[in-house]
Specification:
This protein is an alpha/beta fold. The protein has 8 helices and 8 strands. The structure holds zinc ion (ZN).
Length: 258
């Protein structure tokens, strides 16, 4: 979950599903044979699993102010959880780990903003800078949302042009379209019924997007406060399918130049 300043935006889920169906050519999910080629050899992919497992124990750390490229904001939050208590930080980290393994099998070098779920931090600005400094060719921030309990679905948050990210607006939008298509075809999660339009929202208030110097999106993978989404998001099978969909979108983006 990321801080929302503008309130819940209503969007048509039917339009979102249709938009996903008419997206780019279907992407094949990778097979896991040992002799498989490594299509992503030479590429660097950044992964930022949102929040951290012990952020809750460091309120002063979380409330320190960091510059997000446009304004000052809190270092981070604890994130949300399902009504049953399954935390967003654990969901994000597990999906990130599945994705890391898929990408490394493809031959990619992976830069992670955190490598376990037992600590606190880093702050959101440090996460963005770490992925930039790692010379990522593409990057993804992984979150789960804490929306209204009646709302469902995933939303892909894309950067709005500012000074630092001005060269990656078009490329991030292209990645976002691939990712939407891959998640719609690779999982049963629909696009969000309450955030953005057809599963896409543009955000100017997030360090992870404002400070990015590589193509990057943030995905709210579903609404953890919705019972149906929560059932899916706490399942290892869904987490693996979701990671596989992310891998397919990243691979498609990197191996099909615009
Ligand atoms: Zn979050």
């Amino acid at each position: 979950m990321v801080w929302v300043k503008v309130g819940w935006l209503r969007a048509g889920v039917v339009a979102g599903v249709i938009a996903g169906l008419v997206g780019p050519t279907p992407m094949r999910l990778a097979s896991a044979t040992p002799s498989a080629p490594q299509p992503l050899a030479g590429f660097v992919v950044g992964i930022d699993p949102g929040h951290n497992g012990r952020n809750w124990a460091y309120p002063n750390y979380l409330h320190q102010q960091v510059w997000n490229g446009r304004e000052w904001e809190d270092c981070d939050t604890t994130g949300t959880s399902t009504n049953g208590g399954y935390p967003e930080h654990r969901f994000a980290f597990r999906v990130a780990e599945y994705l890391r393994r898929d990408l490394q099998r493809d031959g990619a070098t992976v830069v992670m903003t955190r490598t376990n779920n037992q600590g606190h931090g880093p702050c959101v600005d440090r996460r963005a800078k770490k992925l930039n400094a790692g010379h990522s060719d593409i990057a993804i921030d992984i979150h789960g949302d804490g929306g209204p309990s009646s709302g469902r679905g995933f939303a892909i948050l894309e950067p709005v042009r500012d000074r630092q990210n001005r060269h990656v607006i078009t490329s991030s939008a292209r990645f976002g379209r691939f990712l939407r298509h891959a998640v719609l075809t690779g999982t049963r999660m629909p696009t969000s019924t309450y955030d953005g339009q057809d599963g896409i929202a543009h955000r100017s208030d997030l360090a992870g997007l404002n400070l990015a110097t590589e193509p990057k999106v943030l995905i709210e993978c579903g609404n953890m406060r919705n019972a149906t989404d929560a059932r899916m998001m706490t399942s290892a099978a869904f987490q693996r399918r979701l990671a596989r969909s992310m891998e397919a979108a990243i691979r498609w983006y990197l191996t099909h130049p615009a």
